[in-house]
Amino acid sequence: MIRTLLRTTKTSYIQLNQHNTIRFASTKHGKVLTTETMHPLVKSVEYAVRGALPIRAEALSQQLKKDPSKLNFDRVVFCNIGNPQQLNQKPITFFRQVASLCENPELLKTENRALVSKLYPADAIARAQVLLKNIGSVGAYSHSKGITHIRENVAKFIERRDGYAANPDDIFLTQGASEGVQKVIQLLTQNQQSGIMIPIPQYPLYSATLSLVDAAPVPYYLNESQSWGLSREDLQKSVDEARQKGVDVRALVIINPGNPTGQCLSEDNIKEIIQFCHEERIVLLADEVYQTNIYQPERRPFHSFKKVLKSMGPEYQEQELFSFHSTSKGMIGECGRRGGYFECVNIDPAIMEQLYKISSISLCPNVHGQIMVDLMTNPPVEGDESYPQYKAEVDAIFQSLGRRATKLAQCFNGLEGVTCNDAEGAMYLFPQISLPNKAIEAAKKEGMTPDSFYAMGMLEATGVCVIPGSGFGQEPGTFHFRSTFLPEENLFDKFCGSLEDFHKSFMDKYRD
Ligand SMILES: Cc1ncc(COP(=O)(O)O)c(C=O)c1O
C-alpha cells in the first residue's frame, strides 16, 4: 500500500510505502529514469573532450550536409580528440590485411589460396593463420584477461622494449587503455577520502573516473614555463597538502608523453618520480599510450616507467606500478577498434585475482582490439615480405606528424598574445592565450568561460573544433586551448591560415 505520494518534479513522484522506504515512480506521462532519479555521481561527471564544443561541431557538420551556403567553411575539422583516422590517416596496410583475414576465415581455405595470394602477402596470411589457431573464432568470447597467445606477444614486446622480463600473467588486454585505467582506479579507491594525484592540465579520463567512483582528485601542476615539466617539490607540496586535509593519497597518475601538454619526461625525472612514490608509499599509474609519438628522439627519447624502475636499486623493486598502452595512438591510430593493455608490476597476487574477477564481469575485451594489440606489439620485422611497406607507412606518418607539430606551434606562436611550447611527444599542442578584458566580459555575458568563448568563436568562424583549457584544468587566471595537429598535411597551410584569420578578427573586435 502506498501511503504517501509526493510530487518532486513535473514528471516524477516519490512514493513512501508501508515500510516508509522511498521509491521513485513514473506518472502516466513521465519517465521513471530522469536526471532527478539517476545516479548523482554519473550526473556530476564532466567530459570536455566530448562536451559543448564537439556537440556544436557535430551540429555544424550536419548543417554542412544540408545547407552549406550558410557557413563560411566547407568542412568541420575535429581537432578536439586524438582520432587520426577521423582526419583521414591511412590505416597500416599489414594490420588491416591480417584483421580482414581473421574476420573472414573462408579466405584462408586451401581452395581459395591461389586467389587470396594475389591480394595478400604470404606473411599476412601466415599471421592470420597463427592468430586464428590461437583464437578460434573472432566471434567467441576469449579469456577475460585476453587471449594467452597475444598476452605472450605483449610480454615479449615489453621485454624487447625495456630489456627486463615481463610475465604474460601480469598483462590484461583491455578495450583501449581507458578501460584499464577505469578498472585500476576503481580498485584503488575505497571512499571519498581516497586520493589519486593527477596532473593539471590532465586528460579528463582521470577526473571523470574519479568523479564516478567518488574519490578525491589530488592535483599537481605541470610547469608551463619549463616545457610542462614536473618537479619533486611540486609533487611533495601536493601530497602534503592533501594529507593535511585528511586525504589518503594512494596513487599518482603520470601521462608520459603528456596529454594535453606534449612533454616527454627525462630518465632522471622519471627516477625522481619513482623515488617520490616509493618514499610516500604511492602506487604509480603510468599512462604511456603515446610512447611512439616522440618528435625529438635524441633530446627526449621515451623511457618506460617499468624500465627505469627495474634499473634502480633493490630498495625500489617492490614499487607498485600499472602501465597502460593502446592501439589508438602512435602511427596506428586504430581508435575505433578499442585495443589496449596494462601491465601490473609488483601488484599483490590477491589484487591480481580481484582484477581478474572484475575483468570477468564484462566477459572479455573485444577480440578485434586484441588482434590489433598483437599486431602493434609484434609488427613485421626486417626480412618479412611486408616489412618494407610497413616501415614506409609508419615512417611517413611519423615524419609528417613531426612536421605538422612544428608548423602548428609556429602558427600559434605567431599569433598576438599566444605562446606555445613545442610538442616533444603525443598529438597535441596546448597554447596559452592572453585574452583581452573585453573578451572576458563578453564571455561573462554569454555565461561562458573566456577560453570556451574563444574556442566557440573559432568553431563558428572556421569549422575548427578545439577544446578550451578549462576542460583539462589550468593555472587559475590563465587561458589555453588544446588542438591536435592531426589535420591532413596537404590541407595544413589552409588550416593554419584560417586560424590566423580568425584570431586576428577576434583580437580586432575585443582588443582593449
Ligand atoms: C593520455 C591518454 N590516455 C588514455 C587515452 C585513451 O585511449 P584509448 O583509446 O586506448 O582508450 C587517451 C586518448 O586520447 C589519452 O590521451
TrEMBL record:
The keyword Phosphoprotein does not apply. Gene3D superfamilies: 1.10.287.1970, Aspartate Aminotransferase, domain 1 (3.90.1150.10), Type I PLP-dependent aspartate aminotransferase-like (Major domain) (3.40.640.10). Its cofactor is pyridoxal 5'-phosphate. GO terms for biological process: L-alanine catabolic process. Residues 121-491 form the Aminotransferase class I/classII large domain. One of its GO terms (molecular function) is pyridoxal phosphate binding. SUPFAM superfamilies: PLP-dependent transferases (SSF53383). The keyword Transferase applies. Keywords: Aminotransferase, Pyridoxal phosphate, Transferase. CDD domains: AAT_like (cd00609). Belongs to the class-I pyridoxal-phosphate-dependent aminotransferase family. Alanine aminotransferase subfamily. Homodimer. This is Glutamate pyruvate transaminase. It comes from Mucor circinelloides f. circinelloides (strain 1006PhL). The lineage of its organism: Eukaryota, Fungi, Fungi incertae sedis, Mucoromycota, Mucoromycotina.
